[in-house]
Write a structure and sequence with these properties.
Blueprint (H helix, E strand, L loop, with lengths): L1 H22 L4 H28 L1 E5 L5 E5 L8
Antiparallel strand pairs: 1-2
Length: 79
């Protein structure tokens, strides 16, 4: 559960950073400092999501009536 909390804290901090940068109230040095923090948090969150995605499985029923676990294939949506 600590991992989830850590992910949520990082995501919340990332939201705060975006708001601060969008406000335009920071000096260039302050902006660069928190931008770098945001990059690190983004990488952390991406890593945690990738780890979670690799653990997701689906239960499928075979033609013989038995069940088996398979990796869940997640299709990327085009934007």
């Amino acid at each position: 559960m600590a991992q989830k909390s850590s992910f949520e804290k990082a995501l919340n901090r990332l939201d705060e950073i975006v708001s601060q940068l969008e406000s335009g109230d920071l000096s260039l040095d302050e902006s660069l400092k928190i931008f770098q923090e945001g990059i690190e948090l983004s990488r952390f969150c991406t890593k945690k999501l990738s780890e979670a995605e690799s653990k997701v499985k689906k239960l499928t029923k075979t033609s013989s009536g038995k069940f088996k676990l398979e990796d869940l294939k997640i299709e990327e949506k085009e934007e």
